From TrEMBL:
This is thioredoxin-dependent peroxiredoxin. It comes from Sedimentitalea xiamensis. The keyword Flavoprotein does not apply. SUPFAM superfamilies: Thioredoxin-like (SSF52833). Keywords: Antioxidant, Disulfide bond, Oxidoreductase, Peroxidase, Redox-active center. It catalyses: a hydroperoxide + [thioredoxin]-dithiol = an alcohol + [thioredoxin]-disulfide + H2O. The gene is bcp.
Length: 153
């Protein structure tokens, strides 16, 4: 599981719109990676809308914002269209990136155990090192907290 000051694990993933994104191609600029459990669920929708609404502020600070879940590209495209999302949504269907970042965890809901993505966000500096990590994210106020950390880079 990566920690602050570690080099962020590289990945190449398909995104909505039909292209791919490689973290290594973004070297030289800061990146926010937010991992979320599923498209079109209440918390994930609020978080994705929050990042989309503030995307211009992140961009003005030279930061790329990427959302990652195990949903398919088709699911991401439907989710983005339904909620007018502007953040890039990457598909990690095989789960390797989720595992590399340590967000694929055993979860417990109503006494039922299952594997899923633990809502987490990583702030990666322009040098490719992880500058901040938020695990077990609670959505209210999270985007503002990340934006504040970006301003502190």
């Amino acid at each position: 599981m990566p920690d602050v000051d570690d080099i962020a694990p590289d990945f190449t993933l398909p995104r909505d719109g039909g292209n791919t994104v490689s973290l290594s191609d973004l070297r030289g600029q800061a990146v926010v990676l937010f991992f979320y459990p599923r498209d079109d669920t209440p918390g994930c929708t609020k978080e994705s809308i929050g990042f989309s609404e503030r995307l211009r502020e992140f961009a003005d600070l030279g930061v790329e914002v990427l959302g990652i879940s195990k949903d398919s590209v088709a699911s991401h495209e439907k989710f983005a269209a339904k909620h007018a999302l502007s953040t890039a949504l990457l598909s990690d269907e095989n789960g390797s990136t989720c595992e590399d970042y340590g967000v694929w965890k055993e979860k417990n809901m109503y006494g039922k155990k299952f594997m899923g993505i633990e809502r987490s966000t990583f702030l990666i500096g322009a040098d490719g090192r992880i500058r901040a990590i938020w695990r077990k994210v609670k959505v209210p106020g999270h985007v503002e907290e990340v934006l504040s950390a970006v301003r502190g880079l």
